[in-house]
Design brief:
Low-confidence stretches: none
Number of helices: 3
Mean pLDDT: 91
Shape: flat
Structural class: alpha+beta
Largest sheet: 2 strands, parallel
Number of domains: 1
Strand content: 5-15%
Number of strands: 2
Radius of gyration: 14 Å
Helix content: 25-40%
């Protein structure tokens, strides 16, 4: 739990997607979003999104994986994997 990844993100050049729960008992969501916004400000393609109605494991109140989470994740992957290569 002592690992601090923020300094690593300042060296990253690839696209990035950060998904956060609405209510997370292990991660301070608001502060984490701010920290990652600052650490990735140099990136042209970064998305930070909070998934409403989810917990740390992206489950909804029924204990199911959130449909919004899956849609955002799959959509982001498709847009990056199926996009024409950049020169």
């Amino acid at each position: 739990m002592d690992y601090q990844p923020l300094s690593i993100w300042k060296k990253v050049k690839q696209s990035a997607l950060f998904l956060f729960a609405e209510v997370d008992e292990w991660v301070p969501v608001g502060q984490s979003i701010l920290n990652y916004q600052l650490a990735t400000a140099h990136l042209n393609d970064v998305i930070l999104k909070q998934i409403h109605g989810t917990d740390h494991l992206m489950r909804n109140p029924l204990g199911e994986i959130s449909r919004e989470y899956l849609n955002v994740l799959i959509g982001w992957l498709r847009s990056r994997l199926l996009a024409p290569p950049s020169v």
